[in-house]
Amino acid sequence: KRDIAWSFTVRAPWIVYAGPATGEHQLWRVSSEGGEAAQLTSGGQVVFDFAVSPNGSQIAYSLPNDQNGIDLWAITADGATLRLLVNCGPDLCAEPAWSPDASRLAYSLVGAGLSPGSRNLARVWILDLNTNQTAPLYDDPQVIGSRPSWSPAGNRLAFYDSGAGGFRILNLQTREETLIESFAGEIGAWRPDGTHMLFSDLDLDADPPFIGVYEADTSTGVITLALGPESGWEAFTAPALSPDGQWMVIALRTKGGTGKQLWLMRPDGSEARAITDDPQYANDGHRWDPWGQAVVFQRIKLETPNAAPEIVVWRMNTGRLEMLAQDATGPAWMP
């Protein structure tokens, strides 16, 4: 029957990365507002790759085992608790990708071949984290795949199939499939409603050939060119869409330029402005935070022997760049 008031503080989101980039990778965590980094993993094995869960509670990562394979592990956000997710034995399990509700984990599995040292082609597998059961996405062993990517609603899964000449998008409820033809096979950015995907690709039929940004209908497979040579830019990388789909960050090179710079623009290329403009650096690995307010990326200094990558965050409201870590790679947001 009385008004009650209380106060609390919310920590700034963390950035998880692998470091040292020039040595044996371990997982580290640093505040997106800067400060001292904390090491999350340690030991004699080197972290192969990783993915942060959507709610920021844990990290899935790949770690070599004593059978010449790679297992999947998970560690809590504070690094205090770790557990084995998938014992892959002599197989190579990597490229973990969390479903939006964090109930499933997609990953690629490269099976051990019949002869010593040989390997089969990669296939996509799904781990159900509620039952701890894992199985291949397709029963047909002829369907190969890597680089799995969930749609925002979690009802579709995209992955690259080199044998099919592009990436497949599978509706997990109806099992209907769409093939998006792609030479580079670089999985792009989903539209928030999952109906379209933006990706970069190489057009070898053009004269001269060029790398452009394309938009694909995930239901029909129809592809349209979004940004091409007429834009005045070249060498596009995979775009990153803001969570609301209103903005796109992409690394590109101006004609006659050197390193790729990051640009902010609408998905159709309008209202474009540079985020970075230092020709001494090449920038890539850009990712939006879950609120569409900041972008984390990595950069490396050009024409510098033994240069190590750095992790930088850009804030949309101020336009400022803040360096968070040196000799570090693969930054990802941890809400």
Describe it:
This protein is mostly beta strands. The chain has no helices and 29 strands. The strands form seven sheets. Strands 20, 21, 22, 23 and 24 form a five-stranded antiparallel sheet that branches. A four-stranded antiparallel sheet has the order 3-2-1-29, with no helix packed on it. It has a four-stranded antiparallel sheet with strand order 4-5-6-7, with no helix packed on it. A hairpin with an 8-residue loop joins strand 26 (294-301) and strand 27. It is globular and about 50 Å long. The mean pLDDT is 94.
What labels describe this entry?
mainly beta, 5-stranded antiparallel β-sheet, 0% helix, 335 residues, globular
Q: What is the straight-line distance between the termini?
A: 35 Å
Give the averaged pLDDT, no decimals. 94
Residue share in helices? under 10%
Secondary structure: number of strands: 29
Overall geometric form: globular
Give the helix tally. 0
Low-confidence stretches: none
| N-to-C series of helices and strands | EEEEEEEEEEEEEEEEEEEEEEEEEEEEE
Short synopsis of the structure:
By secondary structure, this protein is an all-beta fold.
Helix and strand arrangement:
Layout: E1 14-19, E2 26-31, E3 38-39, E4 50-52, E5 58-64, E6 70-76, E7 82-86, E8 92-98, E9 104-112, E10 119-128, E11 133-136, E12 146-150, E13 156-161, E14 166-171, E15 177-181, E16 189-190, E17 196-203, E18 210-217, E19 223-227, E20 233-234, E21 240-241, E22 248-254, E23 261-265, E24 273-274, E25 281-288, E26 294-301, E27 310-315, E28 321-326, E29 329-334
Antiparallel strand pairs: 1-2, 1-29, 2-3, 4-5, 5-6, 6-7, 8-9, 9-10, 10-11, 12-13, 13-14, 14-15, 16-17, 17-18, 18-19, 20-22, 21-22, 22-23, 23-24, 25-26, 26-27, 27-28
